[in-house]
Amino acid sequence: MSDFLRLPFKFLQRCRNYTRRVLSRIARAMGAICCLPCCPRRNNRTEVGAVDSLQVYTTASFSESHVAETSSGRLLIFANPNSGAGKSVAVFRERLKPELVKNNISYELIVTTHPQHALAVIKQREDLHEFHAIVILSGDGLVFEVINGLVGRPDRERFFPHLPIGIVPSGSGNGLLSSVFFTKSHPLKGPKSLKQSLESVSQVNANASCVNLTHVETDNEEHLLSFLSVGWALMADIDIESERWRRPLGGARFTAGAFIRCFNLRKYRARLSYLPASNVSCSSVSQRSFPVFERELGAGTSKMLTESESKPNFKKYHLNDRIPKLSDSVPHNWVTIEDEFVLFYAVSVSHISANGMFMPAARLNDDKLYLTYILATDMSRSVELLNFLLKIEKGTHLNSSYCNTVPVSSFRLEPIDEGSFITVDGEVVKTSRIQATATLLQTAVIA
């Protein structure tokens, strides 16, 4: 073990009881942000942006199907056996499957075998219109794949938001489900939350609530849809940097990574530009819900288009039609800050995990994004940063004097110094700069 790792372990051993209590609270608060002890290891992490090299979907991927004699509905189900504690398939077979069979709900189960497996299936399946909903037993990563698989289809408008997503929490974050459950006063964690999620997706009277989506553009002309967050600086680095300690430290790598980074603060120089939401004259997107299994399934298959024809025109979905491309100059009515940052995080919903109420004021149908950042000049003490992370669990961190929160319609982040990571919904994105914009597009979540 290197001296770099030996020092924090000596400290942890000497202050075992106190340190474990503090770091445990940080882990619960950070959830999907930094993947601390409550956030089991992510297997087979891959960068977003390798769509062209996706493995082709084959029928060999299917592991189980069931057709009810008098079917009340039909679900396409994905289970990631590597997410969370690795119990997604067992949860399906022992708890979800019996309820689906009892309620005469047909299904097809796909157990994912590699990163972007679900994305490839969703993009290529010609019978997707024959399902009432997609159910995911995993974390937010698989939700990200499904949503971006849908937007990559030539018939994408057929599914947003009409093909809802059901989530059975089996991963590290589950921020999207937590945000929807929060609006309905459902339990967000523990056995009661799991029971609620299973009931939500397996009942014939299931309902889905619409959630606004964000358009994300990278410098390599990659266009993505985000439902949760864009991360950079401290939170992204804790998550990604701790990957190197997977073998020697196991699950403890998250604790070590957060502790080391908080007490060895980095400064991240960047140019941040944004259009304040108050400058946008657009009506808020309506909040609505709809019954899942009462929807009449469409007929026919997708018309196959060329690659250029199938690319979506995201500009027509922007709530503000004057948002420039990432390659264009920043408009004069945008605010620009060039400085050294400690923390940067942008969210579109209230929760980033079951224990992370990052933006209490956010609504599912918000016509804005919420930027939160801390400048290096305002943050000089590691203890203050630890205190900030602890407060995320109760949503009181935004009251900190050094924390800046700005509602925006769009923002552009351009890191100046090399060596930092950018994440979208917790997934690493290969880009040197990024732009995110609020849109009219919505997905729907069963709850």
TrEMBL record:
Q: Which Pfam families match?
A: DAGK_cat
The DAGKc domain covers 70-215
> SMART domains from the xrefs?
DAGKc (SM00046)
- A cellular component term (GO) from this record? membrane
Originating species: Steinernema carpocapsae
GO process annotations (BP):
sphingosine biosynthetic process
Write down what this protein is called: DAGKc domain-containing protein
Q: Kindly list the GO molecular function terms attached to this UniProt entry.
A: lipid kinase activity
